[in-house]
């Protein structure tokens, strides 16, 4: 639920999540309202509007919504505050648990692909790119990765995915036509089984990889987008710009847009996009969800449910 004040809104019984590489969301209710203090989670939210702030006319009390509260968080509570401009109506066909995966994970996946120059068509499934690209998604069974695989495939591109052995079947079912166990020699080197050179790499793994691993598998003008760049990745990117390198590493910067959330929710409603949920935890066990998320071995999203589960 939400209360908006001068373009901000407070929400109760919410679903919220932690920032990638964490793959956690939460749904539910507590008794306190958060105005955005720094906290370890609660960046992506799903819940019900309870109050509107001055000048907010796009929602009404009782509306089911999703929102993003990055970087302040505050979603691990019954009541939370969010900006109306970063909130989207959730269709009844999309559950709170499914919807809460959109603001951080799905939007990050979409932004990563677009940053890498990969065409993703959200509104017209029949329209394919003139020239399909070879796309690699690392940690493809994770919170962001499983969306990136689906979106790239929907765009008509060739998708290679890396993940653990137990999830090879999953990533294939999501649209990857090549799947690599990252623990095998070929998987560790990111080598395509068919010898493809990648036009785009969406690097979702929490652990950074040296540029020497990416460079041999990239096409002449290939781009690697790192969703959680560290210091080395940032320095590498700066040096590549300075030396006019055609092969590039790009640290991801995503500004979530309401319109993107609405389009992605529409795809979930239509069944074109699938959300994979690793596990669901009550608020009292949020630390268990956090630990699972940070372990790097969650399959899809980890959800924290606060109070009664929402439809």
From TrEMBL:
Segments for region (Disordered): 1-38
SMART domains in UniProt: PKS_ER (SM00829)
GO terms for MF: oxidoreductase activity
Record Gene3D superfamilies: Medium-chain alcohol dehydrogenases, catalytic domain (3.90.180.10), NAD(P)-binding Rossmann-like Domain (3.40.50.720)
Biased composition (Basic residues): 1-13
UniProt-listed Pfam families: ADH_N, ADH_zinc_N_2
Listed Low complexity bias regions: 14-38
InterPro entries attached to this UniProt entry: ADH-like_N, Chloroplast_QOR, ER, GroES-like_sf, NAD(P)-bd_dom_sf
Enoyl reductase (ER) domain ranges (all copies): 13-304
Name of protein: Enoyl reductase (ER) domain-containing protein
Lineage: Eukaryota, Viridiplantae, Streptophyta, Embryophyta, Tracheophyta
């Amino acid at each position: 639920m939400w209360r908006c004040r001068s373009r901000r809104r407070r929400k109760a019984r919410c679903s919220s999540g932690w920032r990638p590489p964490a793959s956690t969301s939460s749904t539910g209710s507590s008794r306190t309202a958060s105005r955005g203090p720094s906290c370890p989670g609660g960046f992506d939210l799903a819940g019900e509007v309870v109050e509107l702030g001055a000048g907010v006319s796009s929602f009404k009390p009782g509306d089911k919504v999703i929102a993003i509260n990055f970087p302040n968080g505050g979603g691990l509570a019954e009541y939370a505050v969010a900006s109306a401009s970063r909130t989207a109506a959730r269709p009844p066909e999309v559950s709170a648990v499914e919807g809460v995966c959109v603001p951080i994970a799905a939007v990050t996946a979409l932004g990563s692909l677009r940053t890498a120059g990969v065409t993703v068509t959200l509104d017209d499934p029949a329209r394919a790119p003139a020239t399909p690209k070879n796309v690699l998604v690392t940690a493809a069974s994770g919170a962001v990765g499983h969306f990136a695989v689906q979106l790239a495939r929907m765009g008509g591109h060739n998708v290679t995915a890396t993940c653990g052995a137990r999830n090879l079947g999953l990533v294939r079912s999501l649209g990857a036509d090549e799947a690599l166990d990252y623990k095998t020699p070929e998987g560790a080197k990111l080598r395509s089984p068919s010898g493809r050179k990648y036009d785009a790499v969406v690097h979702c793994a929490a652990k950074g990889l040296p540029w020497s691993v990416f460079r041999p598998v990239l096409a002449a003008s290939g781009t690697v987008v790192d969703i959680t760049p560290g210091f080395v990745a940032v320095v590498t990117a700066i040096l590549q710009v300075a030396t006019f390198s055609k092969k590039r590493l790009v640290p991801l910067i995503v500004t979530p847009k309401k319109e993107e959330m609405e389009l992605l929710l529409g795809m979930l409603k239509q069944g074109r996009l699938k959300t994979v949920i690793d596990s669901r935890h009550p608020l009292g066990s949020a630390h268990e969800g956090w630990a699972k998320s940070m372990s790097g071995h969650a399959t899809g999203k980890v959800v924290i449910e606060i109070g009664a589960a929402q439809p």
